[in-house]
Specification:
- This protein has about 375 residues and is α/β, with parallel strands linked by helices.
- It folds into two domains: about 160 residues, NAD(P)-binding Rossmann-like Domain (Rossmann fold); about 200 residues, Dihydrodipicolinate Reductase, domain 2 (2-Layer Sandwich), CATH 3.30.360.10.
- The chain is built from 14 helices and 19 strands.
- Helix 4 links the parallel strand 4 and strand 5.
- The radius of gyration is 20 Å and the shape is globular.
């Protein structure tokens, strides 16, 4: 059978969201991953619309074989960002367009540097197609045309839940890295480095309220500078915002050593604490009645027609009926599904390697977000 899309990392949270959104949008999906047991319900529910095969991105040769088996036009990579380059290489060999959810700056640079190779192959690749990066990049593209000069951009996320009990907000490995990896930011045209916990501040966000947030390492620091750099860009900062009950648990886990990538020996086997924690927390279920709300935001300051201008773009993600088991993770999986569909339908058709602010048309993208109850605001006014 020929499938429309191939989802890599389909057995994880984002992979399951992308798969379901694509199928409910009328497409067929070939699911790939390492733990079939976690998606048996989807295979059973969607029958002839999907199938599964084992895939490990560490093995590029086998990855190529699986992608070719799917016969899909577009690959959606939902695996951990460490393997984005492997997946991209496999997609190029397979002759498939591809997107992913983003990674760290060095990985992003490597992916974007492959633009000429992709152009020669007439293939499209977009990295960072989730929430932030993803929706945030499209909001920057939307606001960019309303400035003659852009001097400062701040971008980030803030979320909260109705029940103040810890659940895994998104990839636990990524969460630990956001709390512990040194954060880059641009200040007066110079790259600065700070420990996230040393940059804690408090800010108000629509639909969330006051919340603690901190500077975090994110690829937007690099891609936003590339996009706006010729327009006088001097400052870029990324902020990660978590509710108090979540911050407290995460900091405790870090204090106990669970963020360490240094293996420990247990019963003769090497186990990395961060990987063990990630697998352990996959068993954690949402409390009954649990709901999340998230605000993705981009604040832009600059000059328009000789006058100072500030635009605050926001995307509010409310609880979505029927998707309770995904929380606000829908704002990562669903945008990826939308961007993949835009490539499939040739709404996006320029070959090369991009981040979303360079290639994703905001208006049709925002319309699709609205269908999924995600509203986009410009200075408090809904624009979709």
């Amino acid at each position: 059978m020929k499938f429309d899309f191939c989802v890599v990392g389909a057995t994880g949270m984002q992979g399951r969201i992308v798969t379901r959104d694509l199928i409910e949008s009328g497409y067929s999906v070939f699911m790939c991953g390492r733990d079939k047991s976690r998606i048996e319900h989807l295979l059973k529910k969607y029958g002839g619309k999907t199938a599964f095969d084992f895939l490990d991105l560490r093995n590029i040769k086998h990855t190529v074989k699986v992608i070719k088996k799917s016969k899909a036009k577009v690959v959606v990579n939902c695996a951990e960002g460490d393997w984005n380059l492997n997946c991209l290489k496999a997609c190029i060999i397979s002759g498939a367009h591809s997107i992913d959810l983003g990674s760290v700056i060095p990985m992003t640079k490597k992916q974007l540097s492959m633009g000429n190779t992709l152009k020669k192959k007439k293939l499209i690749h977009i990295t960072g197609c989730g929430s932030v990066p993803g929706i945030g990049n499209a909001m920057l593209r939307y606001a960019d045309r309303k400035f003659d000069r852009i001097e400062t951009v701040k971008v980030g996320f803030a979320w909260d839940s109705n029940i103040k009990k810890f659940v895994v907000p998104f990839s636990m490995e990524s969460v630990l890295e956001e709390f512990t990896d040194k954060a880059q930011y641009l200040h007066n045209n110079r790259i600065k480095i700070v420990k996230p916990v040393n940059s804690l501040t408090k800010n108000y966000h629509r639909a969330i309220g006051m919340q603690r947030e901190f500077k975090s390492r994110h690829p937007e620091i690099y891609t936003f500078q590339k996009f706006c750099g010729k327009r006088g860009m001097k400052n870029i900062e990324f902020y990660a915002g978590f509710p108090e009950h979540s911050i407290n648990v995460i900091l405790t886990l870090i204090d106990l050593g669970f963020s360490s990538k240094k293996p420990v020996i247990f019963e003769g086997k090497k186990i990395k604490p961060d990987e063990f924690l990630t697998e352990l927390l996959k068993r954690l279920e949402y409390p009954k009645g649990y709901k999340e709300t998230e605000n993705l935001w981009v604040s832009i300051k600059g000059i328009y027609h000789g006058k100072k201008r500030k635009i605050l773009m926001e995307c509010i993600i409310p609880p979505l009926k029927g998707w309770e088991d995904a929380g606000c993770n829908i704002d990562t999986g669903m945008p990826a599904s939308i961007m993949a569909q835009m490539i499939f339908k040739k709404t996006i058709k320029e070959p090369g390697s991009y981040s979303p602010e360079f290639i994703v048309p905001p208006e049709p993208f925002f319309r699709e977000l609205k269908k999924r109850k995600m509203l986009v605001y410009e200075n408090g006014k809904i624009v979709n």
